[in-house]
Amino acid sequence: MGHLGFSYMGLLYLILLAVPNLIWTKYQPTDYEALQENKILLMLERAGQVLVSCSVLIFSDLNPRSWSAWSVWLIISVVLMFFYELWWIRYFRSTRTIKDFYSSFWGIPVAGATLPVTAFFLLGLYGKVIWVMLSVIILGIGHIGIHLQHARKLSSNHSNR
Fold it and tell me: I need a surface site. Which of 15, 92, 105, 145 has the fewest CB within 10 A?
């Protein structure tokens, strides 16, 4: 279930998520505003953002503790957040097109959405906090769903030329 208390790991993850997204507001891809988003997916994404942001801060079980087999989930989660940061670096160094924004990274589709969602889910798994995992599932359905829709639309627009 999870023990209530402050999670500095949750805060760190939120910072790692927020900083590149704040920078992105000044470097959005070309034609980004033209893309329409499914209202249901958008609602799930927004609800998931609030739920994840709150839940990762209030469960101390997400903080590192002594080594165990469960520590592997934390390590994989940290590696995925590192890859997420590398994906952003690649994006900011690119021409910052819409195609760059919905790109894969090391074979991971729509990495800008998939990497952090998976990292947060594994952080919840590491802490054995069902509320974090459920929140991330809601976020993932919306966030990854929107990114996949946009990527498919871009792919079909490109193949129709």
Answer: 15
Residue at 151: amino acid letter: A
Cα 61 from Cα 24, distance rounded (Å): 31
What tokens appear for 20 in the block? 């590149």
Tell me the domain boundaries of the chain. Answer: 8-25+39-61+69-159
Backbone angles phi and psi of 105, in degrees to 5? -145, 115
Q: What Rg do the C-alpha atoms of the chain give, in angstroms?
A: 16
| Residues forming beta bridges with residue 49, ordered by sequence position | none
- Answering whether pTM is above 0.85, one says yes
